[in-house]
Structure to design on (131 residues):
């Protein structure tokens, strides 16, 4: 399974440690992709059909231990009003739209999201690990 910290976040960490402060966002926004991004961004994020990134509170939406964190509760997207395509990856952003990609990863199982479907990432299934 591929996944990584984005180039933006790697640069922000270096700058924070050695030059200037980096302000963490109040929320992380989970995006779904039909074509995975890379460390530099890109990929094909879902669009249309009532799709919108889902907010997860930075300090209360995650359960962290050691070098890892995971979503503390289900992340449930709005019901699709049209097909979003086959979702294969996720991204974490610092904004509801546009913004900066922070982390990304492939999903362990791809899922077709059609009209009337509700995409959900169960609690504990979105894992971020630093090595």
């Amino acid at each position: 399974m591929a996944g990584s910290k984005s180039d933006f976040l790697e640069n922000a960490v270096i700058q924070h440690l050695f030059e200037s402060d980096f302000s963490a966002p109040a929320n992380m926004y989970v995006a779904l992709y039909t074509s995975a991004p890379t460390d530099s961004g890109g990929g094909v994020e879902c669009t249309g059909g009532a799709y919108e990134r889902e907010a997860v509170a930075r300090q209360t939406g995650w359960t962290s231990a050691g070098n890892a964190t995971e979503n503390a509760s289900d992340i449930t997207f709005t019901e699709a009003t049209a097909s979003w395509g086959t979702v294969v990856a996720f991204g974490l952003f610092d904004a509801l739209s546009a913004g900066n990609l922070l982390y990304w990863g492939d999903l362990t199982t791809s899922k077709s999201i059609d009209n009337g479907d509700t995409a959900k990432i169960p609690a504990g299934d979105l894992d971020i690990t630093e090595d």
About this structure: The chain has one domain: 3-108. Residues 67 and 131 are 7 Å apart (CA to CA).
